[in-house]
């Protein structure tokens, strides 16, 4: 990977050919897949994500001035994007480069300032628009680079908070903390049970035995900014406001399902009631799923994944024909014990728990059914867990 990025670096930044390319440094941050716990990170609930071996690489070379130049091998048509450390403002023309720029801006706002920029080539192995958090991967990668280069000594929890702030205030996506947290604190061979309200977390071993985690990409692109993500969040906030008329809570997931069932009529709007129902029940499913996985009850774990998809389809309404078709094709297979959409929805990926026996044949049958139903070709990835952000030496 280093050789591949170095070759591109020489081409993209040809004016630095005489620089000591031996001083370049290579960093990596993973993507993530959320096994269960969807659309509840901003509702104060539990999520259960896994960092992936897929992720984002960056080869960087520090500069002596305050300029930052970045190039993405995934968007070569955009060429080199350039900006100054004293002019970190959102620029639509900079497209993907606003993510690293936003991170540097938030660092500066918090007093972590440097006068020396860098040149960097980025390369992501995460399918763009698949819902595996390529944007958060870039953010956490940039934060790790900036923190390391300048020895700011920002601890991992505060580092991911800065990345979330960059997405919220600089990019304008009102996301929760899950994506940045699961990438920033990812651990190979473990899933993270994260309480998004308190940020308390536990590592749970991925005990899947003869089963594999398979990510299936619908290849229906969806931009998070263009989706109804912010709309759903607003609907949940409205529902919370209604429930607060009776309950002293600060987030939906503080309520248990029994209390919600008893008092749900407080939410007079049926749509808002459905959104709250998903958040509260999904939170309980997530806790049960982590327990089931730890205890080795994979049948129960898979059943909870299936229930999660039904809730996202019927109560939260963020699936759509493509995701539903891909999940249905998986459910038709005997060796699939669980399948659901993962990510923001409206396209992107499903996560499936499939027996390793005849795995290729099963994925082919699922893909054939999906293509017949939608006209799109799904792509499958047998997911391997990955390590959190780090420098590759």
From TrEMBL:
<feature type="domain" description="GHMP kinase C-terminal">
    <location>
        <begin position="290"/>
        <end position="370"/>
    </location>
</feature>
<feature type="site" description="Transition state stabilizer">
    <location>
        <position position="32"/>
    </location>
</feature>
<keyword id="KW-0299">Galactose metabolism</keyword>
<keyword id="KW-0547">Nucleotide-binding</keyword>
<keyword id="KW-0418">Kinase</keyword>
<dbReference type="InterPro" id="IPR014721">
    <property type="entry name" value="Ribsml_uS5_D2-typ_fold_subgr"/>
</dbReference>
<feature type="binding site">
    <location>
        <begin position="129"/>
        <end position="135"/>
    </location>
    <ligand>
        <name>ATP</name>
    </ligand>
</feature>
<dbReference type="GO" id="GO:0004335">
    <property type="term" value="F:galactokinase activity"/>
</dbReference>
<feature type="binding site">
    <location>
        <position position="135"/>
    </location>
    <ligand>
        <name>Mg(2+)</name>
    </ligand>
</feature>
<dbReference type="Pfam" id="PF10509">
    <property type="entry name" value="GalKase_gal_bdg"/>
</dbReference>
<dbReference type="InterPro" id="IPR019741">
    <property type="entry name" value="Galactokinase_CS"/>
</dbReference>
<dbReference type="InterPro" id="IPR006203">
    <property type="entry name" value="GHMP_knse_ATP-bd_CS"/>
</dbReference>
<dbReference type="InterPro" id="IPR019539">
    <property type="entry name" value="GalKase_N"/>
</dbReference>
<dbReference type="InterPro" id="IPR022963">
    <property type="entry name" value="Galactokinase_bac"/>
</dbReference>
<feature type="active site" description="Proton acceptor">
    <location>
        <position position="179"/>
    </location>
</feature>
<dbReference type="Pfam" id="PF00288">
    <property type="entry name" value="GHMP_kinases_N"/>
</dbReference>
<comment type="function">
    <text>Catalyzes the transfer of the gamma-phosphate of ATP to D-galactose to form alpha-D-galactose-1-phosphate (Gal-1-P).</text>
</comment>
<dbReference type="InterPro" id="IPR020568">
    <property type="entry name" value="Ribosomal_Su5_D2-typ_SF"/>
</dbReference>
<comment type="similarity">
    <text>Belongs to the GHMP kinase family. GalK subfamily.</text>
</comment>
<feature type="binding site">
    <location>
        <begin position="38"/>
        <end position="41"/>
    </location>
    <ligand>
        <name>substrate</name>
    </ligand>
</feature>
<feature type="binding site">
    <location>
        <position position="72"/>
    </location>
    <ligand>
        <name>ATP</name>
    </ligand>
</feature>
<dbReference type="InterPro" id="IPR006206">
    <property type="entry name" value="Mevalonate/galactokinase"/>
</dbReference>
<feature type="domain" description="GHMP kinase N-terminal">
    <location>
        <begin position="98"/>
        <end position="186"/>
    </location>
</feature>
<dbReference type="Pfam" id="PF08544">
    <property type="entry name" value="GHMP_kinases_C"/>
</dbReference>
<keyword id="KW-0067">ATP-binding</keyword>
<feature type="domain" description="Galactokinase N-terminal">
    <location>
        <begin position="20"/>
        <end position="60"/>
    </location>
</feature>
<dbReference type="InterPro" id="IPR036554">
    <property type="entry name" value="GHMP_kinase_C_sf"/>
</dbReference>
<keyword id="KW-0119">Carbohydrate metabolism</keyword>
<dbReference type="InterPro" id="IPR006204">
    <property type="entry name" value="GHMP_kinase_N_dom"/>
</dbReference>
<comment type="pathway">
    <text>Carbohydrate metabolism; galactose metabolism.</text>
</comment>
<dbReference type="InterPro" id="IPR000705">
    <property type="entry name" value="Galactokinase"/>
</dbReference>
<keyword id="KW-0479">Metal-binding</keyword>
<protein>
    <recommendedName>
        <fullName>Galactokinase</fullName>
        <ecNumber>2.7.1.6</ecNumber>
    </recommendedName>
</protein>
<keyword id="KW-0808">Transferase</keyword>
<feature type="binding site">
    <location>
        <position position="167"/>
    </location>
    <ligand>
        <name>Mg(2+)</name>
    </ligand>
</feature>
<keyword id="KW-0460">Magnesium</keyword>
<keyword id="KW-0963">Cytoplasm</keyword>
<dbReference type="InterPro" id="IPR013750">
    <property type="entry name" value="GHMP_kinase_C_dom"/>
</dbReference>
<feature type="binding site">
    <location>
        <position position="229"/>
    </location>
    <ligand>
        <name>substrate</name>
    </ligand>
</feature>
